[in-house]
Amino acid sequence: MDLRDYLRILRKHTWLISCASLLCATAALVTSIATIPVYQGTAKLLVVAKSEPGGGTASAYEGALLSQQLVKSFAQILESRATAEAALRLDPQPFTASQLQARIHAEPVTETLLISLSVDDTNPSRAKRLTNNVARAFIGALPDLQSGSALRVSLVEPALTPSEPVRPRTKLNVALGLMLGIMLGVGLAFLREFLDRSVKTPEQLETAVGVPVVGTIPPFRAGKQPIPVAAAPRTPAAEAFRKLRTNFAFLRVDRATLCCVITSPAAADGKSTVAANLAIALVQAGERVALVDADLRKPSLHRLFGLHQRVGTTTVLLDQADALDALQQPDPGLPAILTSGQLPPNPSELLGSGRMNQLIEELRATFDVVLIDCAPLLPVTDPMVVSRFADGILLIARAGATTRDQAQAARTACAKAGAAVFGTVLNATPITEGDQSAYYSYYGESGRTAADSGRDLVAGDANGSAPQRTQTNRAGRHSRLRSGAS
Question: Which of 95, 117, 155, 194 has the fewest beta carbons closer than 10 A?
């Protein structure tokens, strides 16, 4: 991974990092507010060893050295239980000597003869009194501690009433909580990315399947407008399908006709939407295209184009209708579509029959490109049996949904069946805001609507009722397809 990958992960999980930061900062703030403030009284004591009047410089040096040696010991004595008991005798308080001892803190001031004394309490006035009482109690007990050395300890800086608490430090706690939240959020982002096995980039998909990525489709509202190539040709999605058409055209090199099975590793990867838009894009480029719905388990092409499903693939496979008679073409700018027909109890057997091979050959004789929309590859064997009669497979993966394991399993299944994989398409792959603005600035902010383009696929009301297909004469359509073959 390079720096761009790390930045991509951080941008993708900005919400997670923000939430973790906000939660930790809020927790630190609430904890600080709920904590009882603690005040600290601070005083300073000076320890001096008395020197003999006629001792000169040597005596003064010995006294200073002795004072430095005793400062550490006196700091320990200040924190002792005996000093706490003596302080409570001077000013009784509603707590024990052990409790007071836990609040006393004494430490020598570096390279001085001073001792810094502090006492904590929830009441600022009492913190001041306790600090001064501990100092006076220690000074009063000093004569009993001397053993031949003349020492003098004086309170050089009595404690004052503290104005601000030493705990909690709300601003510092919130800042630390915010930093901790950012670190936690970043860690969770990378952990989630590490545990997430889904394919997100064309490079990951190409590595997993081992074949080139021939197209990347940005997210668009497929539920509202599933066929942007015809209804909204100036949108980024429509341009992406035209780029896919350009790459797909190279597959026809040295081939008079091309039959391609379009499938995906799992359901809801958008294979039918890709097949429909690719077919329309090929028609717009002047190709004669037949789009066959061979997903006999959960067909969707009839809904995308607003066509009836009564006569279709199963009808032809059961020799109940002629292939060209069963084709529907709502508009000259659209492909000829063979819907699924009635759903059979044995889809794999029907699709693997010799009649399926005959159907494909009949369509090859009339059309330049035959696209076959099949069921997902991993759950069922339908695409594998149809691929025996086709030139190859176009595999559709969905960014963030298709896992690398599924992509690798699809590659293995195709290899075992001897099916050639032409390439892969990464559907619903996110694009940056900069890319979106570049698209829309070039193609127009809203694109052309279906009415503006003059190529309305279906007519439906604003409430989402079922669209009505354009009625055409079967005999006229049959003759039109026959004349195209000649």
Answer: 194
Q: In 10 A of CB 76, how many CB atoms?
A: 11
Cα separations in angstroms, 64 against 43, 57, 69, 79: 22, 11, 9, 23
- Looking at residue 72, its pLDDT comes to 85
Q: Which residues, other chains included, contact 434 with Cβ-Cβ below 8 Å and sequence gap of 6+? A: none
Asked whether residue 433 carries a pLDDT value surpassing 70, the answer given is: no
Which value, to the nearest 10 degrees, does the dihedral of the CA atoms of residues 296, 298, 300, 303 take? 110
Instruction: Tell if the pTM clears 0.70, that is, is over it.
Output: no
Q: What is the DSSP string of 255-266?
A: -SSEEEEEE-SS
Return the structure tokens found at 291: 């789009």
Contact 196, 405 (CB under 8 A): no
pLDDT at 150 exceeding the cut of 80: no
> Average pLDDT of the chain?
85
Phi, psi torsion values for 203, nearest 5 degrees: -65, -40
Q: How many helices (H) and strands (E) does the chain have?
A: 21, 11
Q: For residue 39, what are the contacts with CB-CB under 8 A and spacing of at least 6?
A: 120, 121, 122, 123, 124, 127, 162, 164, 165, 166
Same domain, yes or no: 129 and 179: no
| Euclidean distance between CA atoms 237 and 427, whole angstroms | 10
DSSP-derived secondary structure for 436-449 = HHHHHHHH-SS---
Contacts for 176 with CB less than 8 Å, ≥ 6 apart: 28
**Residue 271 in contact with residue 425, Cβ under 8 Å?**
no
Assign residue 110 the CATH number of its domain. 3.30.70.1130
> Which residues are CB-contacts of 272 (< 8 A; sequence separation ≥ 6)?
293, 295, 300, 301, 304, 373
